[in-house]
Write a structure and sequence with these properties.
Blueprint: E1 9-20, E2 23-34, E3 38-42, H1 49-56, E4 64-69, E5 72-74, H2 78-81, E6 85-88, H3 100-110, H4 115-128, H5 144-155, E7 162-166, H6 174-189, E8 193-198, H7 201-204, E9 209-214, E10 217-222, H8 224-230, E11 233-239, H9 243-251, E12 256-262, E13 265-271, H10 277-283, E14 292-295, H11 300-307
Parallel strand pairs: 3-8, 3-9, 6-7, 7-8
Antiparallel strand pairs: 1-2, 1-4, 4-5, 9-10, 11-13, 11-14, 12-13
C-alpha cells in the first residue's frame, strides 16, 4: 500500500553549502519537504533564500552537500528536473514587448506543449488567473499584480509537480498578495508541492512549514504553530506612558529578549527562564508606570526574534 502523499518527500538536502570565494551564502543546510505542502523560506535579504532555491532547482551547483528533488539528483539530473518543476523568479522575467497570450504561447513551446494541448491549456490559464481580457496587452504595460498573475500562469503551464516561488509578492499591493495566496492554496489542494521564499511574517504564517534562515544557516524549522509553541520566551504587551524610555530600560535586562513599540503599547518577550513572568514584569521598577500588562499569543515575528541574532537561545 502506498504512503499518504503528504508523507512522501519531494526535496531532500543534506549539508547543502554554497561558497562564493570566502563567503558562504548557504551554510550546511538540511531540508526535508513533504509532498503537497507549502514550505516557506523566511528571512531577510542576504539570508540565503534565493541561493538555496537556485541550488534546489539545479540552476546553481552546490559547493558541498547533496540534493534530491522529486527523486532526481541535482544538479546531475537538472535537465530532466526542469520539466517537472516550475520556477517564478523574484524579478518579472517574461517579455515586456510580447502580449500576455504571446508570452504564454512561448513558454508553452519551451515545455513542449503544442497543438490541441496548447490550445486548451492557454485559455484555461487565462480564465483561472483573470487574464482573458488582458490577453492582447503587452506584459510591459501591466500592473504589478497583473504581471504576478501572468508569471504564475507561465510557471504552472506544464502542470509541474513542484513549484518554486522566489519572493513572488514583494512588488504587489495587499489585495493582490491575498488573492495570490488563495491561488497557491488551490494549487496545493490539487496536489502541487510549493516552495516559497518571503520576508513577510504574515505570509510565512500561511505556510504548512517554514525554515527560518539567517546568514545562510537554518535557525528553526517546523510548522508555524509548533515554532511559536517551542520558542524560548513568553510574550506580553505593556501599556503606559513614556514607552520609549520604558523600552530602553527593559532591553537592558538580561531576561528580556526583545521589546518593540507597536503604537500605544510595547511588545515584550520575556525569557522562559523567568518563573511567573507576569508577576516578574509587574514588580519591575522599569514598568512601574505601566497601566496594563497582558499576556498575548506569539506570532512568527516573535519566533524570528528569538531564533536569530542576539535573541537566539
Amino acid at each position: 500500500m502506498s504512503r499518504d502523499f503528504r508523507e512522501q518527500t519531494v526535496v531532500k538536502a543534506r549539508g547543502l553549502t554554497k561558497k562564493f570565494k570566502d563567503f558562504k551564502a548557504v551554510d550546511n543546510l538540511d531540508l526535508s519537504i513533504e509532498r503537497g505542502m507549502i514550505y516557506g523560506f523566511l528571512g531577510p535579504n542576504g539570508s540565503g533564500k534565493t541561493t538555496a532555491m537556485r541550488m534546489l532547482t539545479g540552476l546553481l551547483t552546490p559547493s558541498e552537500g547533496s540534493v534530491e528533488v522529486l527523486g532526481l539528483k541535482v544538479p546531475k539530473d537538472a535537465e530532466a528536473l526542469k520539466y517537472k518543476i516550475g520556477y517564478m523568479t523574484q524579478t518579472f522575467s517574461l517579455y515586456g514587448d510580447l502580449t500576455v497570450f504571446e508570452n504564454l504561447k512561448f513558454v508553452a513551446k519551451i515545455y513542449g506543449l503544442r497543438g490541441s494541448i496548447q490550445k486548451k491549456r492557454i485559455p484555461e490559464l487565462l480564465e483561472r488567473y483573470e487574464l482573458s481580457e488582458l490577453k492582447d496587452r503587452f506584459a510591459g504595460k501591466m500592473s504589478g499584480g497583473q504581471r504576478q498573475r501572468l508569471a504564475l500562469a507561465a510557471a504552472v503551464i506544464h502542470k509541474p509537480l513542484l513549484l518554486f516561488l522566489d519572493e513572488p509578492t514583494s512588488a504587489v499591493d495587499p489585495e493582490s498578495r491575498r488573492n495570490f495566496w488563495e491561488q497557491l492554496f488551490d494549487l496545493s489542494d490539487a496536489g502541487t508541492s510549493i516552495v516559497v521564499s518571503t520576508h513577510f511574517m504574515d505570509e510565512a504564517e500561511r505556510c504548512h512549514k517554514i525554515a527560518i534562515l539567517e546568514a545562510g544557516r537554518k535557525r528553526a524549522d517546523g510548522t508555524p504553530e509548533d515554532l511559536m509553541h517551542a520558542m524560548g520566551a513568553n510574550v506580553y504587551e505593556v501599556e503606559g506612558p513614556d514607552l520609549r524610555d520604558m523600552r530602553l530600560k527593559l532591553l537592558a535586562l538580561e531576561d528580556v529578549v526583545s521589546a518593540a513599540q507597536l503604537g500605544a503599547r510595547l511588545r515584550v518577550l520575556v525569557s522562559r527562564r523567568v518563573h511567573n513572568p507576569e508577576d516578574w514584569l509587574t514588580q519591575r521598577p522599569e514598568v512601574r508606570q505601566a497601566t496594563r500588562i497582558s499576556k498575548v499569543r506569539p506570532n512568527l515575528e516573535d519566533v524570528f526574534v528569538t531564533s536569530t541574532g542576539e535573541g537566539r537561545q
